[in-house]
Amino acid sequence: MTNITLIKGDGIGPEISEAVLKIIEASGVKINWDIQTAGADVIEKEGVPLPKRVVESVKKNKIALKSPVTTPIGKGFRSVNVQLRKELDLYANLRPCYNLPNIKTRYNNVDIVVVRENTEDLYAGIERHVDEDTAESIKIITRKASERIAKFAFDYALKNNRKQVHVVTKANICKLSDGLFLESARKISQNYNLPLKEILVDNCCMQLVQNPNQFDVLLLPNLYGDIVSDLCAGLVGGLGVAQGANIGENYAVFEPVHGSAPDIAGQDKANPTAMLMSAIEMLRYINENDAANRIKNALFDTLSAGIKTADIGGDKKCSEFTEEIIKKL
What we know:
The model has no long low-confidence stretch (mean pLDDT 94). The chain is globular, with a radius of gyration of 20 Å. By secondary structure, it is of the alpha/beta class. It has helices at 13-27, 40-46, 52-61, 80-88, 143-159, 177-189, 201-210, 222-235, 273-285, 289-304, 318-328, and strands at 2-8, 31-37, 63-66, 92-98, 111-117, 127-131, 134-137, 165-169, 196-200, 217-220, 245-247, 252-254. The chain starts with a strand and ends with a helix. The longest helix is centred in the middle third of the chain and has 17 residues, at 143-159. It is built from eleven helices and twelve strands. It folds into two domains: 1-99 and 239-329, Isopropylmalate Dehydrogenase (3-Layer(aba) Sandwich), CATH 3.40.718; 106-111 and 119-235, Rossmann fold (3-Layer(aba) Sandwich). The chain has a ten-stranded mixed beta sheet, sandwiched between helices. Strands 6-7 form a two-stranded antiparallel ribbon.
C-alpha cells in the first residue's frame, strides 16, 4: 500500500477531492491517504494558509495529490502553490494538453506537453516599492535551474517518444536572462538525438492559435510557461480538463490547474475531470499503470456518452458524473 498525502484546498477543492478518491477506490488501488487541509479556510485556525504539517506530510510520503487553493489577487497571502514548489524544490511543472472525447474545441489532434521551470524567474517573488509611485520586480534566471529543466524536458521527450522540443523565450529583448535560459537549452540538447527548435514567446502564442499541431514539447521559463500552459489548456477544452504535476528530485505533487471557484463551492456543480486526470498521472508515477488505464478509459467512455458537467457542455452534477465513471469501471 502506497502512502500519499491528499491536500484538500478550499472552494470546490474538498468536493472534487472526494469525487476522485471514490473513483480511485473503485479501481481497486490500495492507497493510504494522509489527508491534510490548506488555504484560506485554515488561516483562521492556524494563522497561515500552508501549515508546516502539510509540508512535513509531503516530505514524509514523497507524493501528494492536491486540489485547488484560492490565491488572493494583489493582496493577502502568497500563493500556496508557489510556496509548495519552493519548499519542496519542485522545479518541473508538467502540463500535458491533448483532446478529450466529445469536448468541443477549435482543433483536433492537439497533443502538446508544456514543461515549465518552476522555481525562479519573476515568481521568485523578489519585489519592492522604489517609491510610492514605482514598484520593481527582479527576474532571476540561473544556469543551474535552466539546465536541469532542459534536461527534464529532453528526458521526458525521449521516454515518451516525442519528436522535438521547442525552447520558448524572449531572448531578443531579455538578452541576459532569457539568453541564459536559451544558452542552457542549447547546451543540454547536444546530449540528445532530438531536434531543438527555438521560438520567441509572442510568436509561439500566435503560432499556437493558428496551428497547434506543429508543436510537441514546449520548454519555457516560469512566467511564460504559466501563460502558455493556460493557452494550451484553452486549445483542448479549458482549465476544467487540464491536468498538472510539479516534480522535483525527491517529491512530486499532482494537481489540477484551475482555480478554487468559490462561487460554486458546495453546489455539486464542480467538474472533477482535471483533478482526475492529474490523479491518473499520479498513478502512473507510482507504477499503477493498469488502474490508470482503466480509470482513463472509464472517463473517456463517460465523456463519449455525452455525460458531462455544465462547464463542458453537459447537465450532470459532480456526483452524477462521478457515479457514471465508477459504473464504467
